[in-house]
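Appendix C. Worked example: Peptide deformylase
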Amino acid sequence: MEINGIVLSPDPRLRQECAEVEEINSDLRALVERMKVQMFENSGCGLAAPQVGETIQLAIVDTEYTSEKDYDPYVLINPVIVEQSDNLVPYNEGCLSIPGINCEIRRPDRVVVEAYNLEGECIRYEAAGDLFCVCLQHEIDHLHGKTMFERLLPQQRMHAMRQYQDALSRGARPGETE
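Step 2, the predicted output written as structure tokens:
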């Protein structure tokens, strides 16, 4: 199921390991532009390609925009977490593909990510203790077939899935959290 161009859980594309991007071409650039529009229109701060139905290792992230004027997401092609801290901290996360709920997820409080941009340059992103840090990890999880649900303990997962079903039955849409 999709709403506003966003693939919703439990769509199998969200649980799939994504293929590496082999070539930066006009099709990939067009996909990035489509993702930018969809992320902005759905009030997201990150979006991975499987969330728009494309199972490739591509994500965009912008955690600091306040309007369309300062909206300029980072493009991450084939991103890899090359360093992460051992210190796990809780963060209340939402997801465009799981609208209507938030889940407390424990993640490393510091990461270093390497990814290619649209110019084919390898860029290193360092983040610690903020939404950008969480968002990088969340979007990279999507590229490896993991949603917020897979980060929860079994009992927490069952509770979150019930909340999600309730939210969907109330008409929750991407960008809405509890």
